[in-house]
């Protein structure tokens, strides 16, 4: 099968998320990394791109130059990943969709709900894929949780409890460090800090697993470090459109927590518990039964989990392999389009622009509810009301 061609914007040397994308995209051999505008400093981006193996004429200085260069080629890239800082996502994603490229954009997809609606409209109009990197939904056992809920193992879902709490911004003495400070500054970060950065991962995962979209929410937001304008901790109560209730806690001052993404789902017939720091085990408690630990790669899991599992049971799989599953879904989606066939439904799980938009509506609802003493807000984007 011919390889798909892949390009990347952002993710330069020393960036946090660039390496995980390169590992994820490269894992199955479906994508060849052939183009990049990797750094906000053109020379550094060109030089690093070539060090990673890009040809000199495809190691671009910036994303506009890359757009122009790739548009004119017969062997233009099939997919571009946008892994730059948040405020640039909208402009870059919009330009590449308009030029007919498929895009995988980092989260948050945009800075406003209006921009999110524009991206959804554009993806629909152009028929291009616009995926959003809620990459943790690529974990095999997260996909298994979703399959268990969908086939009715839990009965009706009553409650979902999601957390994404870490302690990496807990040092008050370091709050003025420019690398930290901008995240809590509305001029640079927008209306929300911790919820927009981490809370939306937990919220999206909750929605993905229970198969319900967020309807409304009530938020208690706190700046535990006084100099911060935006929240570093939030507790959000949720109501979903299928009747489930939810609780979501996100924090950046939770000392002792590392990555801290966890999900618990409680239904009429059983409960599930999963934590990203131990992603190869899923805890299942059926009503009236015994607690069971499911191992990734073990027998009797769902086709979705089997497809997302790469090495045999007992060997740890982690985050870059979860990202690889998003890339594998996208490779299948792009190939199916090229070959004029339906895509494998087990691969049709990658997060969409619609998910990115729903997150933005939730971000604004959290910010407003937080300022309004926890008043319940409609959390749906106007487009989906
Ligand atoms: P970072 O600050 O570590 O790296 C950003 C990189 O983008 C740098 O190499 C920088 O030179 C480059 N860059 C900046 N402006 C650019 C431009 N205009 N053109 C080309 N390159 C440019 O940031 P980090 O932490 O890697 O985050 C990037 C994005 O990924 C953010 O939107 C963040 O929210 C998201 N992210 C997502 C994660 C996930 O799990 N899905 C985890 C961490 C970050």
Can you characterise this structure?
The protein has 385 residues and is α/β, with parallel strands linked by helices. The chain folds into 2 domains: 4-136 and 348-352, 3-Layer(aba) Sandwich (Rossmann fold); 140-311 and 356-378, Dihydrodipicolinate Reductase, domain 2, CATH 3.30.360. The chain is built from 12 helices and 14 strands. The protein has helices at residues 18-26, 42-51, 63-71, 89-98, 113-126, 140-150, 178-181, 186-189, 194-210, 303-307, 319-339, 353-371, and strands spanning 4-10, 31-37, 79-83, 102-105, 130-132, 157-165, 214-222, 233-240, 245-251, 261-267, 270-275, 281-286, 292-295, 377-378. A hairpin with a 5-residue loop joins strand 11 and strand 12 (281-286). The chain is globular. The structure holds 1,4-dihydronicotinamide adenine dinucleotide (NAI). Residues 9-12, 15-18, 37-40, 62-63, 83-86, 88, 106-107, 133, 135 line the site of 1,4-dihydronicotinamide adenine dinucleotide.
Please describe the topology of this protein.
Elements lengths: L3 E7 L7 H9 L4 E7 L4 H10 L11 H9 L7 E5 L5 H10 L3 E4 L7 H14 L3 E3 L7 H11 L6 E9 L12 H4 L4 H4 L4 H17 L3 E9 L10 E8 L4 E7 L9 E7 L2 E6 L5 E6 L5 E4 L7 H5 L11 H21 L13 H19 L5 E2 L7
Parallel strand pairs: 1-2, 1-3, 3-4, 4-5, 6-9
Antiparallel strand pairs: 6-10, 7-8, 7-14, 8-9, 10-11, 11-12, 12-13
1,4-dihydronicotinamide adenine dinucleotide binds next to β1.
Enzyme class: oxidoreductase
GO molecular function: 1,5-anhydro-D-fructose reductase (1,5-anhydro-D-mannitol-forming) activity; nucleotide binding
Protein name: 1,5-anhydro-D-fructose reductase
């Amino acid at each position: 099968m011919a390889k798909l061609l892949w390009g990347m914007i952002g993710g330069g040397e020393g960036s946090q998320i660039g390496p995980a994308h390169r590992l994820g995209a490269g894992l199955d051999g479906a994508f060849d990394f052939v183009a990049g505008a990797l750094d906000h400093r053109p020379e550094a981006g060109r030089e690093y791109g070539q060090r990673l193996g890009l040809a000199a004429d495809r190691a671009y200085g910036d994303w506009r130059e890359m757009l122009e260069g790739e548009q004119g080629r017969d062997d233009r890239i099939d997919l571009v990943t946008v892994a730059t800082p948040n405020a640039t996502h909208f402009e870059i994603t919009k330009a590449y969709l308009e030029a007919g490229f498929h895009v995988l954009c980092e989260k948050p997809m945009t800075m406003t709900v209006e921009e999110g609606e524009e991206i959804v409209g554009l993806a629909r109009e152009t028929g291009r894929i616009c995926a959003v990197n809620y990459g943790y939904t690529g974990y095999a056992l997260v996909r298994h949780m979703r399959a268990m809920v969908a086939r009715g193992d839990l009965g009706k879902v009553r409650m979902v409890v999601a957390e994404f709490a870490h302690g990496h911004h807990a040092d008050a003495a370091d709050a003025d460090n420019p690398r930290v400070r901008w995240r809590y500054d509305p001029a640079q970060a927008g209306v929300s800090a911790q919820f927009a950065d981490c809370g939306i991962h937990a919220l999206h995962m909750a929605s993905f697993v229970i198969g319900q979209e967020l309807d409304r929410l009530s938020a208690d937001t706190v700046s535990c470090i006084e100099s911060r304008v935006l929240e570093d901790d939030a507790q959000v109560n949720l109501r979903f459109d299928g009747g489930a209730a939810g609780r979501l806690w996100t924090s950046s001052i939770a000392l002792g927590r590392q990555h801290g993404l966890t999900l618990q789902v409680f239904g009429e017939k059983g409960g599930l518990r999963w934590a990203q720091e131990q992603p190869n085990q899923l805890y299942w408690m059926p009503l009236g039964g015994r607690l069971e630990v499911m191992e990734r790669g073990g027998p009797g899991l769902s086709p979705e989990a089997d497809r997302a599992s790469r090495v045999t049971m007992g060997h740890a799989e982690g985050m870059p392999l979860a990202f690889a599953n998003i890339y594998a879904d996208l490779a299948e989606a792009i190939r199916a389009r090229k070959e004029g066939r339906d895509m494998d439904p087990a691969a049709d799980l990658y997060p969409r622009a619609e998910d990115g938009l729903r997150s933005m509506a939730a971000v604004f609802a959290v910010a407003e509810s937080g300022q309004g003493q926890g008043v319940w807000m409609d959390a749906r984007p106007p487009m989906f009301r």
